[in-house]
Each structure stands twice: as structure tokens, then as C-alpha cells.
Amino acid sequence: MPDLYDVAAIGNAIVDVIAPASDSFLADNRLDKGAMMLVDQAQSAALYAKMAAGVETSGGSAANSIAGLASFGGKGAFMGKVADDWLGEVFRHDMAAIGARFDNAPLLAGPGTAISMINVTPDAQRTMCTFLGASVEFTDADVDKDVIEAAKIVYLEGYLFDAEAARRAFAKAAALAHGSERMIALTLSDGFVVERHRAALMGFIEGQVDLLFANDTEICALFETTDFDTAVEALRPHVKLAAVTRGAAGSVILSQGERLTVRAEPVEKVVDTTGAGDQYAAGFMFGLSRGRPLQQCGQLASLAAAEVISHYGPRPQVSLKDLAAAKGY
Q1: How many domains does the chain have?
Q2: For position 1, what pLDDT does the model report?
Q3: What is the CATH number for 155?
């Protein structure tokens, strides 16, 4: 089958509400700064009522990456589950607006479309409280065989590892991808995901994953260490290719015994770190899908991450294609 997509992603379809918050607001509401916690619908509504005025935008980690890919000029597809409600329509419209394929039928009965309350403190740290709603109803029946087989890279969101049905969907997607000689990429998503599913994640990484994305916290959690270099060295024998981010310290790329260091793109002011890892993955996969050298993939990734942390919201606000061209990437 010919290549129709640079990346096809599977992840949680979520609408984000992003608002400024103080450290005292986090403390008063018993929120763990910089982390993501799952809440039920009632808790979500109660927190929403307390939050400052915010910005509503379609989100979800893998969907954000597809938005970044599109901003670079790439062709993407997304698979996820929304409900047959207003937020679901917002999400569907936003994916269509960026030119990404999103064909999954909405959930007609059951929980509403997922929503994430994101409180951003003055130091740009984001604290997320997420009601997963319809997103966890994604199953292997929602995996589109034709889309998987037509994508150069199939990108899987670690947040979905909490749902058994989604794990079966991952297995199906991996089998289809490898059967068509496509690449499987996985992001670890969050330290809490790693803590809850360390053994299962490691098994999946070793058996199915061609490209792993993680940040320093996640990779240290995976190998139960507080030392970054120890964790990176422990990762080497388990992956073919990996990109590990370190915030302002840049990122490290591991490939076939090689270790590359990529500097972080400078940012005048960090406003909101929401989506930084998602856009890093977008830039890296865009470069990889277009046959760019790994160092340049890392540069594109850092450029995308820098753009998104310079403003509120998890998706690019200016053309990443134009930014890359201006940098000579």
C-alpha cells in the first residue's frame, strides 16, 4: 500500500480547558503540581467551577502531535473516541480544520467527551485533572486497518495504557504496522503511567516499539532511579531508537549504540509547558518520516517544543513549516 500519511496516531480525544493559577490554588485543591491526575465527571465539574477564566481548545497528547505534524506540512491521521455531544463536535471540527483524518464513529451512549482541566502556575508548570469520559471506550474495533497500513509511522499514546481495551487496540495496531513494515512509536506520556504499568510497558517496548519518546522523569521512573544518565544507559538495550527530553537541557537521541545531544531551542519567555512533549514528538516524527538525519529530527523537535511553550495552549499558533525554513532546518 502506498504511503498516504506521515503519521497515524492513536490516543485520547480530549478538549482542554487551560487557565492561570497560583500555587495556593493548587494547594487548596490538593493538586500535585506538574502532574496529571484522573478525576470523575463530578470532580471535573467542581474544579471547573473554581478555576479562573480559561481557554478551551482541542487537545489530547497524540492529537496535539498530529496538529504539530500538520503545521510542519505533514499528512496525519488520528484515531480516538469522542461522544456524540458538543465537545465531540468541537474536537472533530478542529481535526478537520488542520487537515487531519479523523473518522471514528462517536459514542452514542455512555460518558461524554473527555475534558482536561489544566491549571498553569506563573513558573509555566501545568497541572492537569482529566476526566477521560468517552476516550476510554476506544477499542480494537476502532483501529482502521487501511490507515495503519498507509502510515509511515504509527504513534501510540501511553496515557491509553490505563484501559485494557485500548491495550488490545495497541496490539492490533502494532501487528498491522509491522505486517506492512511500518514503524511503531510510543510515548510514555507521564510518570504516573510508568509507575502503574512499568512491567507491561517494558514488555511492549521490547516486543513492539521501534521509536520511544520519554522525558527525564518518565525514563527515571521506568528504571526506578533518580539519575538521568543511569536511566538512559539502562534504556539502550531495550530500544532501537529513542528520544528523551530534558526541558531546558535539551534532549538525547539513542540509536544503534549512538548517543546524540540536541540543545533546546531558546525561548524568550516560557508561558505554558502544556504540549511541549507532544510537539517535540511531532517535529521528530515529521523529520523522520521525511528521511532527515537524526540530529535534524531533534532540531525540528526542539523548534516545535519551543514554539508551543511560548504561549497558552498545546498546539502551534504559527506555522512550524515557516519557522523551520527560517532556521534552515
Answers
A1: 1
A2: 61
A3: 3.40.1190.20
